[in-house]
Amino acid sequence: QRCDIWSCGVILFALVCGYLPFEDQNTAALYRKILNADYQAPKFISDHARDMIVRMLTTDPETRIAIPQIRSHPWYRQVTESSHRWEGERGERILEEDVLEQLDRFGFPRDYAVKCLQMCKHNHVTTTYYLLLEKKRRTNVKTLGMSYHSEMSEDLTA
Question: By the 8 A CB rule, do 50 and 41 touch?
């Protein structure tokens, strides 16, 4: 599990920084860089992101950050828990009822859609569900933004 965290650290570095942490034309030099955690994070990343990457790319598996520590890390916690929570208390998938109703209106029977989603099927039903869910989330964000701007306008004119 700790090696998976290290691998995720490499991926996180690449996603945040835009390039891999360890690069070298010479294979022996590349291995040396990996074993010594010899990399430079760019200055433009936040202190919390830098700290998370450093902890994930720690070469000693015994001192490397673990999953519970990752989940409590400030960089991870900056996004609300509910925005990336897919499962309920007992491990069941949380499904959006209004999105299921939209699927039903599109001709996808609700029971079949729920079954496909719970089984993590990759088909036209689940694809449509996740596209509708993403549209709902984007619409909610835009609505919140518009509400904020209209409140600001009212405050400025009052």
Answer: yes
Hey, how many other C-beta atoms are within 10 angstroms of the C-beta on 109? 11
99 and 139 share a domain? yes
Number of structural domains in the chain: 2
User: Residue 43 above 80 pLDDT?
Assistant: yes
Hey, CA dihedral for 12, 121, 2, 23, is it positive or negative? negative
The set of residues, in sequence order, having a beta carbon less than 8 Å from that of 87 and lying 6+ positions away, is 93, 94
Task: Give residue 81's pLDDT.
Answer: 52
Q: For residue 143, what pLDDT is reported? A: 54
State the Cα angle at 14 between 13 and 19, rounded to 5°: 120
- What tokens appear for 6 in the block? 């290290």
Same domain, 29 and 66: yes
The predicted pLDDT at position 120 comes to 86
